[in-house]
Amino acid sequence: MKKIFFLFIASAIVFSCSKEKTKEIDTPNKGQITIETDESFKSVTEALVERYTSLNPDTKINLVVKKEDLGLLDLLDKKARVVVMSRELSTEEKQAYDTKINLPWQPAKFAADAVLFVVPKNSPLESISVETIYNELNSDKRKLIFDGTNSSNLNFIAQKFNKKPSELKFSIINGNENVAEQLANYPDKIGVISYNTISRPFGEEAQKLRNQLKILKVVKDNMTYDVSLANLKDMRYPFTRVLYFLTNEAYYGLGNGFIRFSCQQLGQIVVEKEGLQPYNMFKREVQMR
């Protein structure tokens, strides 16, 4: 009888622990996670989070703004469930992902953004060549102003020129918006910011910044490109970049639910409303009766 009693108690404990463990596992429509994004993509990520959580009121997504490189480290250390990236990971970073996360490296692409070169509205400059950008990044004049070290903008430009960020010469004003707002104080400089900082068509802050800035066209191989959606879609603008999610979630929980939403039609509509180019295009059909 005692043996049966102890077996019953043991089963109850196992059941209780199993129940508690089940409670900890989130689902696509219930739970809480942390997502990290570089400040350059804050606007579009914030819009996606707001839309997703409004459709799934039992979810809570803590959006943390952190430099791209640091966000990747937090993902590997499992301090964040999802991160937004824009640059290609190095071989070593992919190996670290494979080792620490033990999942296939599978980026979930959701938007085309761009790195812009901007000057004050009254500047006589209209364009800048890829060659000039490269030369300025090797000049002691440090004419280009980035939003910080470890930032997505600097990482992406360095990667485009097959350089390490530490090999480049540049100035810093922390934050994309601060670069845009303070640029008028440095008339001989050129700001380097993300398109998403100013892309939201009806965003009050984005409109204010657009009124202060002139976006330089980029010249490459004797062709001049602006940052139109058509040029982002075809990746003709030389500094177009694709935004993608990485996750360490090994099951279909809140992280993967959010990623799937962002890459499918409703999420892509949010991306479009942000003024960015959706990565996954959906054919729109109108039925006439």
Describe this protein's structure.
Residues 24-262 form the PBP domain. InterPro entries: PBP_domain, Phosphate_ABC_transporter. This protein folds into two domains: 26-111 and 243-278, 3-Layer(aba) Sandwich (D-Maltodextrin-Binding Protein, domain 2), CATH 3.40.190; 113-240, Periplasmic binding protein-like II (D-Maltodextrin-Binding Protein, domain 2), CATH 3.40.190.10. Helices cover 39% and strands 22% of the residues. It is built from eleven helices and 13 strands. Helix 10 (254-263) packs across helix 11. The relative contact order is 0.19.
Name some characteristics of this structure.
single chain; 289 residues; alpha/beta; D-Maltodextrin-Binding Protein, domain 2; 2 domains; ten-stranded mixed β-sheet; three-stranded mixed β-sheet; 13 strands; globular
Based on secondary structure, the structural category is alpha/beta
CATH topology of the largest domain: D-Maltodextrin-Binding Protein, domain 2
Number of helices: 11
Q: What's the overall average pLDDT, rounded?
A: 90
Poorly predicted regions:
1-23, 283-289
CATH superfamily of the largest domain: Periplasmic binding protein-like II
CATH class of the largest domain: Alpha Beta
- Helix percentage range: 25-40%
Anisotropy-based shape: globular
Largest sheet: 10 strands, mixed
Number of strands: 13
Number of domains: 2
End-to-end gap: 76 Å
Radius of gyration: 23 Å
SSE pattern, N- to C-terminal: HEHEHEHEEHEHEHEHEEEHEHHE
Strand content: 15-25%
